[in-house]
Structures are given as C-alpha cells and as structure tokens.
UniProtKB/TrEMBL annotation:
SMART domains: alkPPc (SM00098)
Swiss-Prot/TrEMBL keywords: Phosphoprotein
PROSITE patterns: PROKAR_LIPOPROTEIN, TAT
The protein's name: Alkaline phosphatase
Pfam families, sorted: Alk_phosphatase
Family assignment from sequence similarity: Belongs to the alkaline phosphatase family.
C-alpha cells in the first residue's frame, strides 16, 4: 500500500494509538507530493453531469440524513493525498456550455459550439479520445445512467454535427469502445430506430455480448459488452429505489462501474473509462430535489466503489468532476435563526417519485383537474399545494396562460420547484445550465495535472500524454 492510498479504513485497521503512531512515523518518512508523478496504467474519469457546487453541499447533508455517513466525494475533498481544482467550462460560442461541447472539449481537445459532438466551428473534425486510444490497443469504456449515445459519452467516442442524431452516434462505438453500459435501446433496436436498421448487429458481429437486464450483466464474463437497460435514459434513482421491479431489472451506476473495472483493473492493457451520473443534470433541469439528490448519492456510491477497487494500486488515476453547473440549487435559511432549515430539508426524504415519473401518471390520467394534481403531489412529494399553486400548475400543464415572473421558471418544472421549495427550503436560479466552473477532485499518479483552474479542453492533452 502506498501512503497516497492510506484511507480512513486503513487507519482503523491499525487499531490503537501505538499503531497510529507507527503509521504516522512511516508517513513522515515516505510522504510524497499529492498525486506525485508516476506511471498511469488506467484513468477513471467520473462526471456528475450538471452538478453545481450547491449539489455537493446538499448531497453531503442528505447523505448524513439517509445513510448516516459522509459522501465519498466530501471525504476526497478533505483528503490531503487528493488534488483539488476547478474545471473551466465555456464552449466555443457561449460562456454557458452544454454537455456536447463540454465532453467534446475533454474528449476531442477542441472547444466546439453547443450541440456539436467533436465538430469544430470551422467544420473540421476532432478525433475522439477513445478512437485515438483504441488504435493504440488500449481498453476503453463508457458507463452512464443516460442513453449511451447521449452527449457526455458521445464526446469521448463519436463525431456528430448534431448531438440529437443519436441513431448516427450508436454504430460509431462498435470496435472503438469495449464496454458500453447505459440506456438508449431505441437507437440500436431496428424496431425503434427511425431508419429501421439494426445497430445491435454491428456490435454482435464485432464480438460484443448484447445484454438488456441486470441479472445477465452481473453474471457476464465477456470483455466486450453492449448493455442497454432501457429504451431511453435509465430511471431516476429515486424511482429505481421506490419500484421493486425497476430495481431488479436496472443495474445501479455502482454495479455497472464495478463490472467495467473488474475487467479493466486486472487486464494487461492501459485503459480509459468514463463513468457518468447523467441524470443529476436532468434533476437540476427539472428543479426536482429528490430526483437530483438521490442520483447524486448513486454517483457517490459509484465513486466509493471505484476508490475501494483501486485501493492498493498506485498506477490508476481517478478524476471526479462535472461538465457544467445547472440551475445552481441551494438550501436557503428558513425560520427564526434559520431554525426550520433542517426539518424543511428532511422533507425530501418523504418524496417517493421523480417529477418525471409523477407527471407520467398525470399524462396517463383520463380526467385531470387542479384537485387531481393536488392529490398527486401530496401522494408523491408529500406536501400540499395551495389552491392558487394548484391552479397555476394546472394551467402550465394544460398549456393555458399563467402569470410569468421569471422566464427561466415559467414552466411546470419551474413552478413545482418553487412550490416544493416553500417546504424544503431549496431555491433554484433557473431551469438551465450555468457558466460556473465545476469542482475537480483527482487522486493517484499525475493527479497534480488537475489542480488549480483547468480549461476543459486541456483534459484531452493529459489523456493523450498519459495513455497514448
Ligand atoms: Zn443539461
């Protein structure tokens, strides 16, 4: 075990002050610079998509309430052997990036316009990092809770003028990415693709095992896998946790990450694995606190699993970050001397559905009314809408006019976020991405490359230098 891998558990293992004193003495002799130079055989690049700084803070408090423990990311920030930095996030055409431009900057090394995957503003193409690495015999992987063809994985493995052409992105991964786990069957299945072509067969011909359910994945020993567990994005974690059937059929982000790493960590080839908590971003767009925070905790579980699996290895670099902020939520002080804030925040634990799933029930209802809406919100989100709130929400969902105060929040999600915020204390600046830099934590050899302010397109150079 290198001293840079000495975690809390190792301290506990020593037992007693004598052991701790002996460890302290050995540390003082061997102490290295955090993330000192060393050979890198694998990089695990973890992205909590659309994670504003406030999400990290709220997830920390939420984890203490629901799991009675700190988040692993919080511990990593406090760990003196890890490096901290800020990711600069602008795209070629805006201070505010989307996920396509952000991931293209990381994966292709060029700033591109929003909505573009590795196509520069002048029309030339940037080579995605996983294509580059595959030509050099490296192992490559993409794991996400969004569709596997969504912008963040695509920026590492595909080129597309438009991010929404996911049916064109799908076949590009064949032979380029060894392990693909996430959602998005509708971009592979001939019965669901807009051109009726079978994109799965391209993979099967290339030696991939095609998997559609959790149980088969957990038993698989294949080294090339296309695992698609939903037609679209994987369900929000709050829905996976509150629906036994979904929990059975859909692997967690942690399980998918473990599957990929079980292969990569013990192989002889260098590797790059991207792991994305893709729905953190969707929870933020929807101003949905339960959707957002449970997905952030699922991402944190994946981080804990990754760090546990690389414990004792001094050749693996882990980088944890986000591509951009989104809606910048935060817990506001409420009540006398802010004495109501903790209880208000705990109200999120009583929410048993994402807005997405709840509004799915609304969409399927034969008859709807403000009263139906009030009952639905009470059952799923555990708070009572005021009559005027129910009326405004009803108008927004039935496309009738309602008073506009903020154009960012002038939609059903923005209204729900504000009404829920009257109970939870959580406020949101809008329903879209923000320009803020994002948090970076890095641990392992060469981690110091990710300290200070890192322009997003510089990440690509580090990948090339370390694994090329
Ligand atoms: Zn987004």
């Amino acid at each position: 075990m290198s001293d840079s891998r000495m975690g809390r558990r190792d301290w506990m293992k020593l037992g007693g002050l004598g052991g701790a004193a002996a460890m302290l003495a050995s540390c003082s002799q061997q102490k290295k610079t955090p993330g000192a130079a060393g050979e890198v055989n694998g990089i695990i690049f973890m992205v909590a998509d659309g994670m504003s700084h406030g999400v990290l803070t709220m997830a920390e408090n939420f984890s203490k309430i629901v799991h009675q423990r700190e988040t692993r990311w919080w511990q990593l920030i406090a760990d003196s052997s890890a490096v901290r930095g800020l990711m600069e996030t602008s795209s070629a055409n805006s201070f505010v990036t989307d996920s396509a431009a952000a991931s293209s900057a990381w994966g292709g090394g060029s700033k591109v316009n929003n909505r573009s995957i590795n196509v520069r503003p002048d029309g030339t193409e940037a080579e995605p990092i996983l294509r580059f690495l595959k030509q050099r015999g490296r192992r490559t992987g993409l794991v996400t809770t969004a569709t596997i063809t969504h912008a963040t994985p695509a920026g590492f493995g595909a080129v597309s003028e438009k991010r929404d052409d996911e049916h064109l992105i799908a076949p590009q991964y064949a032979g380029v990415v060894d392990i693909l786990l996430g959602g998005g069957r509708r971009f592979f299945d001939p019965g669901k693709r807009i051109d009726s072509r079978d994109a799965r067969s391209v993979f099967i011909k290339n030696g991939y095992e095609y998997i559609e359910d959790r149980e088969t994945l957990l038993k698989s020993k294949s080294r090339k896998v296309l695992g698609l567990f939903s037609d679209g994005h994987l369900p929000f974690e709050v829905d996976r946790l509150n629906d036994a059937a979904l929990g059975q059929t859909t692997p967690s982000l942690s399980e998918m990450s473990e599957f990929a790493l079980n292969d990569f960590l013990y192989g002889n080839e260098k590797f790059l694995l991207q792991i994305e908590g893709g729905r953190v971003d969707h929870g933020a767009h929807s101003n949905d606190a339960a959707g957002l925070l449970w997905d952030q905790l699922a991402f944190d579980d994946a981080l804990a699993k990754v760090l546990e699996m690389i414990d004792g290895r001094d050749d693996i670099l882990v980088v944890v970050t986000s591509d951009h902020g989104n809606a910048n939520p935060g817990l506001n002080g409420t009540g006398k001397e802010y004495g109501n804030s903790n209880d208000a925040f705990k109200g999120i634990t009583r929410m048993t559905s994402s807005y997405e799933r709840m509004l799915g029930e609304w969409n399927q209802a034969k008859e709807v009314s403000p009263e139906f809406l009030t009952d639905l919100v009470q059952r799923k989100l555990a708070f009572k809408l005021k009559p005027e709130e129910a009326a405004a929400l009803f108008a927004s969902l039935t496309e009738k006019p309602f008073i506009e105060w903020s154009n960012q929040l002038h939609n059903a999600h923005g209204l729900l976020g504000q009404f829920a915020g009257n109970h939870t204390g959580i406020g949101w600046t809008g329903t879209s991405h923000t320009s803020d830099p994002t948090m970076i934590s890095a641990i392992g050899p060469q981690a110091e490359r990710f300290s200070g302010i890192v322009p997003n397109h510089e990440v690509h150079r580090h990948f090339v230098e370390l694994l090329g």
